[in-house]
Amino acid sequence: MKDFFSELWTFAKCPENTFYRPTKIRNGIIDIYYSLAFYLITATVIMIPVTGVIQIIKYFFSIDLINIRNKNIEKSLGIYSLAIIALLAPIIEETVFRLWLTGRKGFIFLSIIAASWVIITKVKGISIYSGVNGEFFHNLVSAIFLGAIFFGVVNLTVLKKFRSNHFKLLYWGSSVAFGLIHIANFAPLKLSLLLIYPLLILPQMAMGFLLGFIRVKNGFLYAVMIHCLINLPGAIYYSYFFKN
């Protein structure tokens, strides 16, 4: 345990893509356990004051942020909420925010395609989990086309050099961006609460920081597995207990 948190602390002070190594299964399982413990403790500590803020807003402004979030999430998922939250969402989000961190050309290309696909669906105002149909394939082809254009106009040597020189910025930026996208769970956003919304997604930012560390330390699949396990309780809740 001491070694894991020592490496996490070292990485937090100066994120670098320098110590990635193949992980033995036993060591990987141990890291998953420590990661879940870290996230649970961190999220609990963060949510204690945040819950107080949420209750104050509910009391003085009659705005139930928790209920708004729950309804938005339930509305976007449909009948496949368990599979989406516990499996599909982690795969998509890890591909967009962390697959590219190691700088491999193919991984960057896949991340660009995934990000383009998400943006296209959002612009169209549809859920990325709407199912496999004609529009799904149209959006996917469009995303692949945008990815191809990106690779056609961007100098990968320059891109890799930029990543190498600014990995710390890119790592923290991906962690913050990962948290910020979850503000959409509280839509429609209210101007009077703009300073409050970042507080609500601090657990997701901490999660992004942790998963970025795991992605570099253990590899992409471990980041996906931990993401799935973190999401699993919420998946069970929205599938079997939450009633809109």
UniProtKB/TrEMBL annotation:
It comes from the Bacteria. The keyword Transmembrane applies. GO terms for biological process: CAAX-box protein maturation. The keyword Membrane applies. The chain crosses the membrane at residues 32-57, 77-100, 107-130, 136-157, 169-187, 193-213, 220-240. Pfam families: Rce1-like. Keywords: Membrane, Transmembrane, Transmembrane helix. Residues 79-232 form the CAAX prenyl protease 2/Lysostaphin resistance protein A-like domain. One of its GO terms (molecular function) is endopeptidase activity. InterPro entries: Rce1/LyrA-like_dom (IPR003675). This is CAAX prenyl protease 2/Lysostaphin resistance protein A-like domain-containing protein.
